[in-house]
Structure formats: C-alpha cells, structure tokens
Write a structure and sequence with these properties.
- This protein is an alpha+beta fold.
- It folds into 2 domains: 8-172, 2-Layer Sandwich (Ribosomal Protein S5, domain 2), CATH 3.30.230; 178-304, Alpha-Beta Plaits (2-Layer Sandwich).
- It is 33% helix and 28% strand.
- Helix 1 (81-93) packs parallel to helix 2, helix 5 packs across helix 8 (239-245) and helix 6 (216-224) runs antiparallel to helix 7.
Length: 314
Amino acid sequence: MEGVSRRRVRARASGKVNLQLSVGPLGDDGYHPLATVFQAVDLFETVTAATRDDGAITLTMDWAPHLQDSALPVPLDDSNLAWRAAEAVRGAFGIVDGVDLHILKGVPVAGGMAGGSADAAAALLACAEVWDCGVTRADLHDLAVGLGADVPFCLMGHTAIGLGRGEQLSPAMTHGEFHWVFAVQHSGLSTPAVFQRFDQMVELGEIITTAPRVDTEVMAALIAGDASRLGAALSNDLEAPAVSLAPGLASVIDIMEDAGALGVVVSGSGPTVAALARSRQHALAMGAVITTARVADVVVTASGPAPGAVLLER
C-alpha cells in the first residue's frame, strides 16, 4: 500500500565556483590531494522532503526557469546524491519512515558547480528536520563527508578553504560581494575523465605537480574585497585537462576575456567557465555578449558569497 505523506520540510543549498584549485600528484590511495578555495553563489538547489509511513523513498524533480532549456538527464533513483543523503540520515539515526523528495534544480548539471552535492546537502538538512533527528551541524558534516568531496562545502556555504579531497574545511574571511557569469554547456565533462587526463599530462611533462597549497594572493584579494585582484589570481590546475578534452572551451575563455572579465577560470572539472565581473551590471552585460556569441548553451549570472544549506519551510 502506498504511504501517506505527512510532515513537510523545504531546504536549499548553493552551487559553487572554485576560485583556486591546486591539484597534487596522484596518491597511493588513488586520490589527488587538493587545496581549493570555494565560493558559494546564489544559484540554488531546493529540496522538499515529506515523510511517508511505508519506509519508501521517492524522488521527483523540476527545473528552475533559467535552466528550462538545458534539462539534461538526471537519475531519480538510489544513485542520486539526494536519495543517498536520505538513506544516510535514515541509517545514522535509526529512522524507519520513508520520504518523498522533490528537487527544484537551479544549478547547471555536470558543470563543475556542485549541483548534485548541493542536492545532497539540502536533502541531509531537510531529512534530518522532517524526521526530527535532533542533529547538529557537526553530525551533518560527518554524513556529508561520506557522500562526496563537495557536499561538506555545500552544507557550509559562504567562502572556505578546502584541503585533503576538499572536505577538510575552514571558513575564509571575505569582504564585499563578487559577481559572476557562468557559461554552461549541455555536454558535461566527467570528473574522473578530467583527472585521468590530468595524470596523462603529468606523465607527458605537460603539467608539473607539487604539493597543493592555497594561494595567498587569492586570500589577500578576498580579505580586501578587491575583485580586480581576485580576478588576476583565479587559477585551476584542471583547466588545461578540461580544455584538452573540450577544446571549444578555449573560445569561451577568449570571448569572456575580450568582454572585459576581471578573470576567467574553468569551474572545478568543467565544462562550465566562470568569469568575474566588475559589478552586477557588468555581469549582465558580459552575459549578453556571451549569449550573442553562441559559445555556450546557457548563460547565467550569480553573486557570491551565498549561504550554505538552510531551512526555508519547516
């Protein structure tokens, strides 16, 4: 018999851009050590959770208006990070009830902006609240680490330094607001494929790896609230591998630079390209230039830093 929905909770979490991503050599554990600076931006994933009395988990999804034309396939089964987040909460706290999950997606899919991780962070918070688990943020962080490297940051939000695989977080001091343009492609890049290409380029001597470290220039720019200085310091060790796999990204980068971006960087493992603007108005103007050039499937603007996972309805 189908369960009956009861209590309903709504939570949201932000997507992100990597202001810096420093990648170390491949370790014996099969992972690369990272040093990164995350910034959450005001593109949101919203997750609604409603309890069921039959123990089942269901998942449905809609797209925010700015992504209606880029509706890439997203799994709605137990491979989805939001579903896995619900299972993690249920397992950790001995919950027997089920839950109906609904995602409103506002972060581009497979674009290196942690949309799936934001789903997981919002689902963790929503499920813990709807099941009345009485959890702390530290409890949720521990669960987030088990779900993926970007999930802990999506839970925290704002601006933060990430070490290890990106999950060892510490808040970063910032002043002011930073305005971004994101050029999104329909065809995503697989994160494992980008890291594999990174390793190939290391073997060929095209990339020299060192122990990853946080760039002091990025941190100084954030503290000063200096967008020009931050733009000049943006960096991503995965940019060259991403462009190697998707050569068309080079044209996107060139057009953004010609449009007056303070700095341009591939976001995470790509293929989304992020451009830092002087102001919100400048971001809109750059977005129009990129749209007219037809080098991206979707162009969105956003500002940061944005909050982490928060409850909207309880």
